[in-house]
Every structure is written in structure tokens, then in C-alpha cells.
Amino acid sequence: MDRQWSLEESTVVDAPPAVVYRLVSDLRNMGRWSPECRSVWVLRPPARTGTRFVGLNRRGPFLWPTLGRVTRMRPDSEFVFDIGVFGLPIARWGYRFEPEGSGTRITEFWQDLRTGGARGRVAELLGTVFAGSNPARRVALNRAGMRTTLARIARTATSGS
User: Fold this and answer.
1) Cα–Cα distance between 30 and 19 in angstroms, integer?
2) What is the pLDDT of residues 47-59, one digit of tens each?
3) Which of 3, 91, 113, 145 makes the best surface tag, with the fewest CB within 10 Å?
4) Of 74, 65, 72, 60, which is closest to residue 18 (Cα–Cα)?
5) C-alpha pair distances (Å), 26 with each of 19, 31, 67, 114, 144
């Protein structure tokens, strides 16, 4: 089977794009929604393009930190950040927000940045050792995690909390 390098999941939220974007672009919320991310510390809030942050992740017995940097912010439209470990690029995560009826279609996307060469192989090894998942398993874990995250974002956006 060919390796999958990216994926997307989306849902429609009964809230306007500005509300959903504001929630998602506050990175400190990620620990509330993601099944793996436990907390995020933004080094200089609020987030803007170039803002760096530290994430603490856990899945079962595996616990690992990540370093992130916001790479693109287009208010009410798109929010993107890159994740790395030990100076190695790991993944690009992002969200797109599109009006749909009276609500918002939010799409979460992921791109694997461990694209080969010695650095890519080291990054893959680190993922296996620290997060307990090889690249093939990572895609399945991310798909399930994205669905959970989007459902939790939708609940938060519609509850007003």
C-alpha cells in the first residue's frame, strides 16, 4: 500500500465562521478538543503568524512534547501551523472555514512533513518511539482524532462556551 501523506476531515457547525475561527485560533483550546493534545502553551499570546508554542501530547502510555509555529492566519478563513520535534519537521496542521448556509464548514487538514532522507527517517523513528505510531498507523490515528476534534469544536461553538 502506498503511504498516505495527507488527509482532511470536515463537518458543518451551526455558528458563523468568525466564531469558529476565533475558537480554533486560540491554540490553548486544543487540549480541550484533541484526543492526543493535552495542553498548549503559547509563548506570546495571542497567536499571530510566526507565533511559537509548545504542545504536550499523550496517547495511552506515550507522552511527548512538540514545538509549533503558526504559519498562516487568514481571519475567518484559514489557520495553519507546523509541528516539529528536536528541530525536525513532523507535520502541518490547519483549518479552513467556509460559510455554509447559516453555519460554517470547518475542514481540518494534516500533511506529513517527514518526507524522506535521513532527517525524515529519524523523524519517523522518533514518532514510533515517543508516540507509539509508525507512519501508516499515524494516518488512521489522525483520521479518528480529527473526527473527534471537529465534533468537540462543533459542540463548543454551538454551546457558546
Assistant:
1) 15
2) 999 999 999 999 9
3) 3
4) 74
5) 11, 11, 16, 26, 22
